[in-house]
Design a protein that fits this description.
With about 140 residues, the chain is mostly helical. It has a domain of about 80 residues. About 45% of the residues lie in helices and about 0% in strands. The longest helix is centred in the middle third of the chain and has 22 residues. The protein starts with about 30 loop residues before the first helix and ends in a 14-residue tail after the last helix.
């Protein structure tokens, strides 16, 4: 009997496959890369965004919100981040193989926010989908 090691976990960053080079392919990113991608894809509603990209930007927005609110300029942060935040939400939904139209659930009080939160926390579609290639 020979021992065969189990295949690497899809969440193991060392064993991650290389990116195909497509800007539509999602991948795990660092905090700095996520912020850079957030502003570089300012109004890009096509393609996919990984969970790490979305949640790092959420953390950045929370921290920046505290700072800008303390200074009294929270409206500037809102104006600068509204469109790229909406684009990132749509790309994250694309990564779970859902249409960006699901963002309209946010118009439903409470229930819509819960539905979107669940969708944002779901894992990425591991295969290529209609919105772009997998990483």
């Amino acid at each position: 009997m020979s021992f065969t090691p189990p295949p690497p976990s899809p969440f193991d960053p060392i064993a991650m496959p290389s990116i195909s080079g497509s800007p539509l392919a999602p991948r795990k990113v660092t905090f700095g890369e996520a912020i850079s991608l957030f502003y570089r894809n300012y109004a890009n509603f096509s393609g996919r965004a990984s969970r790490s990209e979305y949640w790092f930007v959420a953390l950045y927005s929370l921290l920046a919100g505290f700072v800008f609110t303390f200074v009294g300029l929270s409206w500037i942060l809102f104006l600068v981040n509204f469109i790229p935040g909406l684009a990132l939400l749509v790309r994250r939904l694309h990564d779970t193989n859902r249409s960006g139209g699901y963002a309209f659930f946010l118009l439903l009080p409470l229930i819509g926010a819960i539905v979107i939160l669940v969708l944002l926390c779901t894992s990425s579609d591991e295969s290529d989908n209609r919105f772009g290639p997998a990483s």
